[in-house]
Amino acid sequence: MKPHGIMFHHFHDDYKHIRGQGSISTDTFELIISYLQKNYTILSADEWMDKALCKTLNDNEICLTFDDNLLCQYELAYPVLKKYNIKAFWFVYTSPFKGELEKVEIYRYFRSAYFQEINEFYDSFYNFIEKTEFNSEVKKALENFSPESYLSDFSFYTNEDRIFRFVRDQILKPRRYFIVMDSMLKDYNVELNLLREKLWMSKENIKELHIEGHRIGLHSHTHPTSVASLSFNDQMIEYKSNLEILSEILGEAPESMSHPCNSYNQNTIKVLEELKVKLGFRANMKNCSNAIYEFPREDHAIILKKMGMKV
Fold it and tell me: Where does the record place the NodB homology domain (predicted)?
């Protein structure tokens, strides 16, 4: 056991926020908190960060973290945190505050809302690829691909999940992936502008969390799925924009961050140092050398498995 964060993303209810792959209800969230309280000491974000920087964290001390600036977190998880008097880290990407419809979340919503099961989406995705000039390249790359060895640190991914992420991040990469997905959205007549106020928190929501004692941190501006593939300058633009927008909202500069999709490299570390970020989180429990920017986190899905609950 070692000090770490617990990572949360999506929440669902029976009314506004749809059920999707990996999403949990507030009831399940409360069960997770109860389990964690029995097995660990949950510290509020300020205390956890202070102890982390002073290197005085005990092995059983954890914190709760929320990635991606999602409205479902504010409307469903935040009231539960109030009930248990827990202050958390909230890692926020900021492009929605500039009126941009961030594709990562749009595409996830599309997968959840328009398909009964995730594998149904995957089948449709590959059917669309077959109509593109990328088809032969994708098929060739998958000939000797072993999904079991890809993203092996994330045990909750199925082989189908790993194949999709390999095709998305390593073969197509952002520009061509966006072409495929945007053609799918057009074919399914998805009304993008209706999603703007449904998916992300507002500036007012973020400010409230900050005033209430939660820690708001960086998560890049546009949430690239592979930050490590970007140049130093492009990474600096991502995180500097993120920092400037959040600083304007909060009235002070954020000092913590988490790595989107667990993707980063030495350039990322240099960027964070130049921006005077004090602490960063990974998205798994692997031990790493740049400890101050690589504190481990355990996904809530792994906690559910430990609890004997279906993921």
Answer: 60-311
CA-nearest of 192, 195, 170 to 181 is 192
Spatial separation of the C-alpha atoms in residues 67 and 296, rounded to whole Å: 14
**Any idea how long the chain is?**
311
Residue type, 74: Y
In CATH, what number does 4-100+200-306 get? 3.20.20.370
Domain ranges of the chain: 4-100+200-306, 103-195
Q: Which is nearest to 49 in space by CA: 90, 1, 94? A: 90
Q: Which DSSP string corresponds to 154-180?
A: -TT--HHHHHHHHIIIIIIHHHHHHHH
Percent of the chain with pLDDT over 90: 82
31 burial type by CB count under 10 A (0-12 exposed, 13-18 middle, 19+ buried): middle
Of 32, 16, 118, 20, the closest CA to residue 72 belongs to 16
Q: What is the pTM of this model?
A: 0.88
Cβ within 8 Å of residue 175, ≥6 positions away = none
Structure confidence at residue 289 (pLDDT): 60
pLDDT digits (tens, 9 = 90+) for 181-213: 999 999 999 888 777 778 999 999 999 999 999
Residue 219 in this model has a pLDDT that exceeds 80: yes
pLDDT tens digits along 121-170: 999 999 999 999 999 999 999 998 999 989 887 787 899 999 999 999 99
CA 225-107-104 angle, to 5 degrees, is 25
Q: What b/e readout covers 224-258, taking b as 16+ CB neighbours within 10 angstroms?
A: bbebeebeeeebbbbbebbbebbeebbeeebbbbb
